[in-house]
Design brief:
391 residues, alpha/beta, Rossmann fold, Type Iii Antifreeze Protein Isoform Hplc 12, six-stranded parallel β-sheet, five-stranded mixed β-sheet, globular, NAD(P)-dependent oxidoreductase
Length: 391
């Protein structure tokens, strides 16, 4: 869906850009309805050789990591619509080349809102997401129904419903913008008034001594956007009240939409113009997304997938408190080594993970965290066209 929408956007509204190639792992003959079928390729080399910038929007941690490393070898900047990758291998990649998450999905939209807030003099305290519906353990039957109704995959629908996606989104915001969490899994306030909930979260942030990331579950108002809560200078209070943001001391800035693929072009244009990184997972992350068992499981049980599966869901955790946790983005086609209980945080002692480049990166990050050594990755180059999609 993201690739289709982005291709249509560039073709119809960005006359100064050309999508040169679109990488797919599917048979080309199966994609006759793709809006730029002539650009499709199964060759990563062809993608790299014909691109000035790569947009990675596969949603796949393993494949996306391989594509991005190849892009960096060729000196190409990368724009992602792949928060799952960012919170798994993104910190390593951020030290190897130019990588930024795009505006459009909630993390990029929050980062853009923060830039606007800082330019207006606000001091951010809360980076807030919105969740329209939450069920930590949905059924396959329900997820199949909603996937068909919404035109997206079952695993995407499941990760949105069980809360994994919002945890991932807020972790990249926390790492990229220097914020933390108040507790594992965040607060996730049930909310009938955004201003009231925002003020409560702001007070929690001030007690924590640094900005926080969190989310609300709205009732009685729309849940399609993102919000930022901050303070401002006392001598601006009368003016801000006149501008209809209330009496303070906490002010809520609401961006009531995030339009995914329709906004990615803004970040592409930003990068090509030398505008710099909008958001990535930083080279020194403090937060991760652990895997929480949804039910009791026995040793030997096979795990098809973590994100969007029916065995685990993701929760935001502090890396310093849980250095042995398995990032949920690594759980794919593996097996349990021992039994686990509902609500248990999965560690590397619990699972037998297949070798992969993503696993190598995560294990190196884990070793560095345990030993307390600083990142030795190089400072990424600035980005400098032709575009390409890695999917």
């Amino acid at each position: 869906m993201i690739a289709h929408g982005f291709v249509r956007l560039i073709k119809q509204h960005y006359r100064d850009m050309e999508i040169s190639r679109v990488l797919t792992r599917r048979p080309l003959t199966s994609l006759a309805d793709f809006p730029l079928a002539d650009a499709l390729t199964n060759s990563l080399d062809e993608l790299i050789d014909n691109s000035d910038l790569i947009v990675e929007c596969s949603g796949d941690v393993f494949h996306g990591t391989s594509v991005i490393e190849r892009a960096f070898e060729a000196g190409l900047p990368v724009v992602t619509v792949n928060a799952e990758l960012q919170v798994t291998t993104g910190s390593y990649l951020a030290g190897r080349g130019f990588i930024t998450e795009a505006e459009g999905d909630q993390p990029g939209s929050l980062a853009a809102l923060r830039e606007e807030a800082l330019q207006m003099g606000f001091q951010p305290l809360v980076y807030g997401n919105m969740k329209g519906y939450l069920n930590h353990d949905p059924s396959l039957e329900d997820m199949t129904y909603w996937a068909q109704r919404q035109g997206i995959s079952v695993d995407q629908t499941t990760s949105f419903t069980d809360g994994t996606k919002v945890q991932i989104e807020q972790v990249i915001i926390g790492n990229g913008l220097g914020a933390t969490i108040t507790r594992q899994g965040m607060e996730g306030l049930a909310s009938t008034s955004l201003d009231d909930s925002a003020s409560l979260l702001a007070m929690m942030a001030e007690r924590a001594g640094q900005p926080i990331v969190d989310y609300v579950i709205p009732s009685g108002y729309p849940a399609g956007g993102v919000f930022l809560v901050g303070r401002h200078d006392e001598n601006q209070a009368r003016a801000i009240e006149y501008f209809k943001l209330g009496r303070g001391p906490f002010y809520t800035l609401l961006r009531p939409f995030h339009l995914c693929s329709l906004e990615v072009g803004k970040t592409v244009r930003r990068v090509l113009a030398g505008g710099g990184v909008l958001l990535n997972n930083s080279t020194e992350p403090t937060l991760g997304v652990g895997a929480i068992a949804k039910r009791a499981m026995k040793a030997g049980e096979l795990i098809e997938r973590g994100i969007g599966g029916f065995q685990f869901r993701g929760e935001a955790i502090k890396l310093a408190q849980h250095p042995d946790h398995v990032p949920i983005g690594l759980l794919r086609k593996t097996a349990l080594k021992r039994a686990v209980e509902p609500g248990q945080l999965i560690t590397f002692d619990d699972v037998d993970i297949l070798p992969s480049r993503a696993l190598d990166i995560v294990m190196a990050q884990r070793k560095r965290l345990i030993e307390g050594t600083p990142a030795a990755w190089q400072t990424p180059p600035s980005a400098m066209g032709m575009l390409a999609l890695g999917g």
